[in-house]
Amino acid sequence: MKMSSSVPAAAVAVMVLLSAVSTTTVTGQALVPGVMIFGDSVVDAGNNNRLATLVRADFPPYGRDFPATHAPTGRFCNGKLATDYTVESLGLSSYPPAYLSEEAQSNKSLLHGANFASGAAGYLDATAALYGAISLSRQAEYFREYQSRVAASAGERRARKLTSGSIYVVSAGTSDYVQNYYVNPMLSAAYTPDQFADALMPPFTSFVECVADHRTIVSLPIKMNAQGLYSLGARRIGVMSLPPMGCLPASVALFGGGNAGCVERLNNDSLTFNRKLGAAADAVKRRHSDLKLVVFDVYQPLLDLGAPGTCTNATGYVFWDGFHPTDAANKVLADAQLLQGLQLIA
Ligand SMILES: *[C@@H]1O[C@H](CO)[C@@H](O)[C@H](O)[C@H]1NC(C)=O
Ligand SMILES: *[C@@H]1O[C@H](CO)[C@@H](O)[C@H](O)[C@H]1NC(C)=O
Ligand SMILES: *[C@@H]1O[C@H](CO)[C@@H](O)[C@H](O)[C@H]1NC(C)=O
Predict the structure, then answer these.
(1) Alpha-carbon torsion 81, 344, 97, 114, what sign?
(2) Minimal-distance CA residue to ligand 3 atom 12
(3) Which residues belong to the signal peptide in this entry (predicted)?
(4) 148 included as an active-site residue
């Protein structure tokens, strides 16, 4: 078959990747040694079950469509998260365990990554503190502990390869707005959305990279991470952008003024944040030629999925609860992220 010269390079890359993916499923060889997951409820797979927090998903109907068990796991979804689909596509045979879970007590379970995410965590540690969630700073500390456990049980060499070869997924920011800025009158009076987005950039940069001297333009108390992912050895990082926050059913109910449509003002805040996030990520990349860093666009795929709505039959709808996509929407997101994340695997 003669390939038309108009086939874009990206399409060729996708075909190559997809054939690699199908090969891995046949041979049992994964494309990466592991996946490390950080952030909020979009990716939490059960850490909040172990915390004294009200932000949890360990009761029905959560997990209703989760494979095999059809039981709640702590995932904020009827079924699988986008990261679950991603882990499958990468050829890994099990999901990275929630770091606080029973399963993660066994050192063997940690050899293909772990999940440190916690519902209601944000780029601001203060956001997590409001809900008793695990802050990003604490997640980074758990990751260091994880690294020493892997090194102690499987050897330094294996631990180093796992650290540098794994894909790191970071999902944060939504809680800083929806569970902090929008509902905290002092914060929203003191900062315009634009200033608030600016204030989230130093903790973002600090979490993925770790440098000491980033400044903030506003006087929010921002705790910088002592250690960022890059300085801890991560070299393949994918960061999720903000979703269209104005389309989250909770936002429509709270801020929609009785209209069923998405709240444009909040969607604009997402776009503002995402623009600044892209620039901050570019700046990090420029400082480290050995770092692969991709910002996954969550905004457009979710917007394209159409009008929001919650429903008892979650399969055909975009959102499962006030804040979180359905299993079906997560599959669409994961497919989009696989394409955007090709350069992380290459
Ligand atoms: C896991 O490894 C650490 C470090 O070697 C060790 O202290 C701990 O006892 C191990 N845990 C289990 C359950 O084997
Ligand atoms: C959202 O942004 C668009 C484009 O910049 C602008 O035209 C519109 O007025 C904004 N809407 C709100 C509610 O701020
Ligand atoms: C739920 O929706 C899916 C897709 O629209 C459909 O195939 C399925 O039959 C529905 N299930 C129920 C119980 O209505």
Answers:
(1) negative
(2) 313
(3) 1-23
(4) no
Q: Per-residue pLDDT tens for 183-240?
A: 999 999 999 999 999 999 999 999 999 854 444 434 455 555 557 999 999 999 999 9
Give the pTM.
0.87
Among protein residues, the one whose CA lies closest to atom 4 of ligand 2: 268
The residues facing 130 across adjacent strands are: none
**Cβ neighbours of residue 235 under 8 Å, at least 6 residues apart?**
164, 165, 290, 291, 292
Ligand 1 atom with minimal separation from the 153 CA: 5
Supply φ then ψ for residue 113, to 5 degrees.
Answer: 110, 175
Domains and CATH numbers, the chain: 32-345 (3.40.50.1110)
The rounded distance, in Å, linking the Cα atoms of 197 and 30 is 37
What confidence tens digit (pLDDT) does each residue in 20-38 have? 554 444 456 899 999 999 9
CA–CA separation, 110 vs 150, rounded Å?
7
Ligand 1 pocket, mutate which of 107, 144, 156 (most atoms under 8 A from CB) = 107
**CA of 106 relative to ligand 1 center, distance in Å:** 7
From residue 171, how far is each of 116, 207, 289 by CA, in Å?
11, 12, 23
Q: Note if 41 is an active site residue.
A: yes
